[in-house]
Amino acid sequence: MNPVAELRSFLRASLVTKVPRSRRDPAHVLRRRRVVSALTLVIGSAVLWWSLQLQPGDPLFYAGTALLAGIWLAGAFLAGPLYLGRAHTRDGTAYARPVVQSLALGTLLLGVFLAGAFVVAQVPFLRGPVDDLLDHARFGSLPLVLVITMVNGIAEELFFRGALYAAIPQRWTVAATTMVYAATTVVVGVPLLVLAAVCLGLVCGLQRRVTGGVLGPVITHITWSSGMLLLLPPLLSTLK
Fold this sequence. Notes:
Elements: H1 3-15, H2 27-53, H3 59-79, E1 87-88, E2 95-96, H4 100-120, H5 124-138, H6 142-167, H7 173-186, H8 191-211, H9 215-238
Antiparallel strand pairs: 1-2
């Protein structure tokens, strides 16, 4: 199979063709998901805004982002049961946990964003806010920021593609969770962060729709976010 056809087949299997399932939440669980998700969104958005207003290197940044992860995790688990999900295998005759497939998706998405960095580096209006955001990694403890980034990625997916996704009517799940996820980043004031949230939210939402669980989106998210944290700052520095 040629590379283009291989890529098309991979994207179809990972983002389009749903794995069969018949699980449905009873009415009382659905009501709980909606109430808990709404409260979590309000509190989480406020804490996200506050944590990113802190100066790079401020110890409170670590406390704020840890608190944010705790809020997303609490909302995810209090809202109702979460499921890992299953993915199509390469030969299409069985199903497996979406591990390798999700690593590939995260790496592919990372490559697209790093390629876009060549454009961002040449546009001061776009580069300035991105540099300000990345200063938390440059002037803080990179290993600690990496751990926080990964923990927050897991927490966000458990909430947005777990609890919130399950609280929304099926026909709107991908669009609604993508828009809400992107809307929470608007308060940060970085246009490219909102664009990244739309792209990441769409990919993870489609993956959640296909697999029926949160494992795939979690792996895709932390692969992308940790890669961006480690590779984007030196790349932008090189492109100055």
